[in-house]
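Private note to self, pasted from the team thread so I don't lose it. Backbone tokens:
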């Protein structure tokens, strides 16, 4: 257990801004489908003390969902205010302040949706995720769940999944995390969120509608027979001018249970257009694939008589896993640097990349940022001016020169906060994943001292190494598709969570890549990208790979998750390309929407 000292208390005071700690209990996991049942908001002063506390149950007017988790039955909620009745109270607690939550994207997303339902905007311009902060600090805990962190920092937790108690616990965990961050000399990962759609709606590739695409709830039944009927789960694309506003058409189609796609592929069920001879890319593809084409009026008539489809949950069959067999978990490598986590500072890009590769070859683990898991610093030419070298003395870290790379010789020292076993993967290395784990989170981080915009993307490809449909491409403007979800947890951290049993049946490989925003920028400016692979967003790291591209690359293949027989395997790739994201998505068969 980590007990805060008086020095910790003094260090943490400077780390607080105008924070409001929040927690919500909900009827499900998707803000567009589910509702907030309970909300707590605690404002903090500059010293991290609670200055105001608010909590209420809410009557959502719907099924409360997983009662076994939150304990909020319809009877308990009946008579509570509706969200609109407490909206102004919450606005006063949030306006002009930083929203703080554990897995903040979840709480932020639900509150933003509830505000939107009442015709208002959530008055939050910045948020802080304590889950991301915990990963940045990296205390020696098996995972980063709120209960685990509370136990480590000696914070009593009386009632888990209770909005008020969780928020009170989080206030104390936040104080401890900020104290540890101050001790390490690292900044909290504050994330701008004044307009989460602005970035996606800007003049960047590809042209897509604003806001996330919600996965279709029905299984794909194939193409539409000539003349109809439509069936729920069919994939529909639109092109050309429409009498009804395009967004309204899309909304009607999705509300009826159709899967609206941005491009035409072999799996597109029907193309809607009043000008099939327009020569648009979608019209040409429809002719090539013999995709049925109907006009807008006919489509609306078919929509009124749509046939019921098969719910995806009823058809989903788990990905192959052998009964009673568990693939062995990868083990950390051994060598003279075994158990060491080394941060490389200074040197040219190529020199630093070579040094990191050598450290891994000697059995060590490499870091791109300072955290509680770092045991040693390797200082190359020019690295002595890095402020982290001076911090190393305060943290009792061992500082080395290039001689460390010759034999891995390092003065023996007791590591006060040993990191749980983590396997460091070298470029090209392949490992089998345990068959019992069906959810995997791949997190990418890069230099936290620089303001570099990096986009994490994923392609769900079939046996032809191509996407079957545009929905198989996960990126900043389409952050969720069946089996995959992208999240941005901090300015230098993004993650894609894969649920193997929810992947589309045609998916045999997931390709993870990183791309740069901004003209002329290269990965030589960004430096190494660190991957951490875990069995869920709040889990501890199981695998790690630190990948360096050469100086001129603008896109970087990070890793591949692929199915071999009945086992999912992970390969660390680290292959860079000088071309931009548009060329990369073309390689995997994604087409720009009209």
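Design output:
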């Amino acid at each position: 257990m980590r007990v805060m000292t008086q020095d910790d208390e003094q260090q943490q005071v400077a780390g607080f801004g105008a924070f409001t700690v929040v927690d919500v209990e909900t009827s499900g996991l998707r803000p567009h489908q589910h509702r907030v049942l309970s909300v707590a908001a605690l404002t903090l002063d500059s010293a991290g003390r609670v200055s105001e506390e608010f909590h209420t149950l809410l009557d959502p007017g719907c099924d409360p969902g997983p009662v076994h988790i939150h304990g909020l039955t319809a009877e308990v909620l009946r008579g509570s205010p509706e969200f609109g009745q407490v909206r102004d109270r919450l606005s006063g607690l949030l306006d002009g302040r930083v929203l703080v939550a554990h897995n903040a994207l979840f709480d932020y997303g639900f509150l933003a949706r509830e505000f939107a339902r009442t015709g208002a905007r959530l008055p939050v311009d910045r948020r802080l995720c304590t889950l991301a902060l915990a990963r940045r600090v990296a205390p020696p805990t098996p995972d980063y769940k709120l209960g685990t962190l509370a136990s480590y920092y000696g914070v009593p937790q009386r009632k888990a999944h209770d909005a008020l108690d969780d928020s009170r616990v989080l206030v104390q965990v936040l104080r401890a995390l900020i104290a540890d961050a101050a001790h390490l000399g690292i900044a909290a990962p504050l994330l701008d969120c004044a307009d989460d759609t602005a970035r996606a709606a800007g003049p960047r590739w590809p042209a897509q509608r604003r806001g996330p695409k919600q996965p279709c709830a029905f299984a794909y039944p194939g193409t539409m027979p000539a003349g109809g009927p439509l069936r729920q789960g069919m994939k529909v694309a639109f092109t050309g001018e429409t009498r009804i506003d395009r967004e309204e058409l899309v909304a009607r189609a999705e509300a009826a249970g159709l899967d609206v796609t941005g491009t035409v592929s072999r799996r597109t069920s029907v193309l809607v257009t009043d000008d099939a001879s327009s020569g648009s890319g979608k019209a040409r593809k429809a002719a090539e694939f013999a995709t049925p084409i109907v006009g807008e009026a006919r489509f609306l008539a078919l929509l009124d008589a749509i046939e019921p489809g098969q719910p995806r949950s009823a058809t989903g069959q788990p990905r192959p896993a052998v009964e009673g067999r568990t693939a062995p978990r990868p083990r950390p490598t051994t060598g003279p640097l075994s158990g060491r986590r080394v941060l490389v500072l200074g040197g040219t890009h190529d020199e630093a990349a070579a040094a990191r590769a050598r450290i891994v070859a000697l059995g060590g683990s490499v870091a791109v940022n300072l955290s509680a898991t770092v045991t040693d610093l390797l200082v190359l030419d020019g690295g002595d001016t890095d402020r982290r070298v001076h911090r190393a003395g305060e943290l009792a870290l061992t500082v080395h020169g290039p001689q460390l790379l010759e034999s891995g010789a390092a003065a023996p020292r007791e590591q006060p906060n040993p990191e749980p076993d983590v396997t460091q993967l070298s470029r090209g290395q392949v490992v089998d994943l345990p068959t019992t784990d069906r959810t995997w989170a791949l997190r990418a981080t890069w230099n936290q001292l620089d303001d570099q915009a990096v986009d994490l993307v994923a392609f769900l490809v079939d046996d032809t190494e191509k996407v079957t449909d545009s929905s198989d491409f996960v990126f900043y403007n389409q952050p969720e598709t069946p089996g995959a979800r992208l999240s941005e947890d901090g300015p230098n951290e993004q993650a894609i969570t894969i649920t193997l049993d929810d992947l589309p049946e045609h998916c045999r490989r997931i390709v993870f890549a990183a791309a740069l925003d901004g003209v002329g920028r290269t990965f030589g400016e960004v430096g190494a990208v660190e991957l951490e692979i875990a069995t869920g967003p709040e889990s501890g790291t199981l695998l790690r790979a630190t990948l360096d591209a050469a100086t001129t690359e603008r896109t970087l293949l990070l890793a591949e998750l692929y199915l071999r027989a009945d086992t999912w395997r992970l390969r660390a790739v680290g292959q860079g390309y000088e071309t931009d994201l548009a060329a990369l998505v073309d390689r995997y068969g994604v087409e720009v929407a009209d």
